[in-house]
Amino acid sequence: MGQYRQLLVLLTEVNPHSAALRRGLALAHVSGASVHVLGLFEPSEEHLLREERLNEADIKRQYDHYCLQIRALVERHRGSGVALTVDSLAVDDTCSEAIDYISELQPDLVIKDCEPASALARLFGTPLDCALMRGSKGQTLFVPKAAVSLPRRIMVAVDTCFSETPDAQQRFNRGLIHVAEALALQCGAALHLLSAYNLAGVFAADMTVTQAWIEEMREALQQPFDALAEAEGVAQDRRHFMEGGPVQVIREQVATLEIDVLVMGVVQPKGLDKLLGDTTERVIGHPPCSVLTVHPHVFENQEPWPCN
Questions:
Q1: Of 72, 234, 280, 288, which residue is the least packed, with the fewest Cβ within 10 Å?
Q2: Sign of CA dihedral 72, 78, 82, 86
Q3: Which long-range contacts link 272-276 to residues 24+ away (Cβ below 8 Å)?
Q4: What is the distance between the terminal CA atoms of the chain, rounded to a whole angstrom?
Q5: How high does pLDDT run on average in the chain?
Q6: Dihedral angle at the C-alpha atoms of 60, 63, 68, 72, nearest 10 degrees?
Q7: So what's the pLDDT on residue 7?
């Protein structure tokens, strides 16, 4: 038996080409996990504009048709050797009701098709994917349309810069690596470790002094990264400590290394200097590959891990 026992695939539309369903079935094959498919139904706007009495009748007919479609979609995969179940949910508030469902079911992993969102959309509201990754206190995998069935290269992004709570930071970073390792083990994938640092604000009148400061600060920043990579057994050629803004560095490295899944934290634990949540939301808005987001709640009740 593998790392996963139950996978939940969230579908907001009946799509026979769903990348999330394809990834869920592929992971189930290699892990022995069961797959539960949940269809989230929302009535279309045209029904909401009619009188309430007619609205209810039309919505029921539409929902009944949706249930038939989602079940037919799942039936196509009955002979695949995967234990499959299916459910449908008529929702008024997709996000909150999906989170309630996830909290009750408590799957090992939630898998959903990506829904890209612009910076403007994030400014004036909370896109569904961002709300789900924050609200469901577990692991959520967002899969773009062109994703491969099983990942072959996985990269975990950590923040090892100076913190007022280094123990909490280390625990969170190690937790992210262990989540990435679990997925890599299931898929036979290579694991890469990435951290970005930015020294753009370091300067002095004397350029020689500035360069010396930069080198000294870079070495100080890299020490905890190297220590983390060493403790977790990450191969030298798969350690990437890069200068630049985190979102830019992540996108560049995903393209350069041909990464299939990026593992990121939803937010840093309380008391840390910096939130990873903003970076994760920006990446989710235009994902360069599949993104596995991990809520810190996953690690709250775990004992410290021994070094590899």
A1: 72
A2: positive
A3: 272/163, 272/164, 272/165, 272/168, 272/169, 272/172, 273/161, 273/162, 273/163, 273/164, 274/159, 274/161, 274/163, 276/157, 276/159
A4: 22
A5: 85
A6: 180
A7: 97
| Average pLDDT estimate for 163-189 | 90
pLDDT band at 57 (very low <50, low <70, confident <90, very high): confident
85 and 186, same structural domain?
Answer: no
CATH number of the domain at 6, please.
3.40.50.620
Instruction: Say which residue the tokens 């300067």 belong to.
Output: 203
User: Which of 113, 130, 157 is where one domain is finished?
Assistant: 113
Measured CA to CA, the distance from residue 175 to residue 51 in angstroms comes to 52
Whether residue 225 sits in one domain with residue 275: yes
CB atoms within 10 A of CB 178: 18
User: Domain residues for 306?
Assistant: 147-308
Together in a domain, 109 and 156: no
- Count of domains forming the chain: 2
